[in-house]
Amino acid sequence: MADDPNSGEQEPRSPFAKLLDIHAGVSQDGVGTAFMRIQDMHRQTAGFVQGGIIVTLADFAFARAVHSVSQPGQPTVTLELKMNFISPAKDGELTATAKIISKGGRIVVGEIDVTDDDQTLIARGLGTFMLLRPKS
Q: What φ, ψ does residue 39 adopt, rounded to 5°?
């Protein structure tokens, strides 16, 4: 079951991504994308998308970028993720695009942009993932 028929990936979404209705996009050559249609459940009381949801979307896209440069099935974890919120998001679809900017033996650093339908920059982030050793 693919998250996105165009992604070429046959990987299930995490339960948390399913809960928030976040969908996978591209995962290749150090780039990962994820998207979500804004729904009422994503908004805080002022009517804008809650910041933690934007961070979750960014983290999901970053994981897709990391998985494109790691060994198949290799476990990974987020070590650090910092987001700057630039513009509020209220309606439409959000897209997170992550790009790997440095990959060492076990540490991967990437940058993530979250944009809306009009390509307005909603948030920009920088993060670090760790490639774990598979359990034997």
A: -125, 170
Q: Which structural domains are found in the chain, ordered by start?
A: 15-131 (3.10.129.10)
Give CA separation, 73 vs 31, 66, 117, 135, in Å.
Answer: 17, 12, 33, 11
The dihedral region occupied by 119, where left means phi > 0, alpha psi between -120 and 50, and beta the remainder, is left
Alpha-carbon 79 to chain mean position: 14
Phi, psi (degrees; rounded to nearest 5) at 60:
-65, -45
Pair type for strands 93-103 and 76-85? unpaired
- Distance of alpha carbon 11 from alpha carbon 15, whole angstroms: 12
Summarize pLDDT for 61-112 with one digit per residue, the tens.
999 999 999 998 899 999 999 999 999 999 999 999 999 999 999 999 999 9
